[in-house]
Amino acid sequence: MYKGIIFDLDGTLLDTLEDLTDAVNHTMTQFSLETKTLEQVRGYVGNGVVNLIEQCVPGGESHPQFVEILSEFMLFYEANCDHKTGPYDGILELIDNLHQSGKKLGIVSNKFDTAVKELNRQYFHSWIDFALGVTDGLARKPAPDMVNACLAQMDLKPEEVVYIGDSEVDLKTAQNAGIDCISVLWGFRLREVLIENGAKVLVSDIAALKDKLNQ
Q1: What is the C-alpha separation between 77 and 24, in angstroms, rounded?
Q2: pTM for this entry
Q3: Enclosing domain of residue 106
Q4: pLDDT tens digits for 71-83?
Q5: Any idea what the CATH number is for the domain that residue 63 is in?
């Protein structure tokens, strides 16, 4: 049984897709660029906001206004990150049960750090003490740096912890950090994509995840 559990945020604990899409399209409109569909944004998320905006903007980082576009997105999203966002069904009960059973819980996300901490404060602060997003000095996922910081905070060894996420980035992150990974199927990636990227343990609902964590 694991002593600690580290969660991805977007697509794992919270359904953030509509707010992310709204922030993207607000930003695209502000700069007279083509807006994106929900499904397009679904495919872009997972590697952080720089990568997200790079895929939305013609020419990516070479676009002459890229820095301004990225800044507009971050400012708008930070102020509007919880209008349509919410926990997936059963997540709050699961988190409460894990906390009550004495598990150490953390969040490691490629979302920028201020948004991660704000969303954790709104939804999970009673149970999750350590929530980390992209910040200066730590390489973003799939580098192991942020997971290692969480392990240090938990005072646990890699073999005592499991990472739970919904994407190929999460799989690679867990591999790089030397910890187990459980892939959830209610998030932003299809089963086939996860399997192609090496997923060995997949769960389709909260009940199945709870069973895996109690084994």
Answers
A1: 8
A2: 0.92
A3: 4-15+86-213
A4: 999 999 999 998 9
A5: 1.10.150
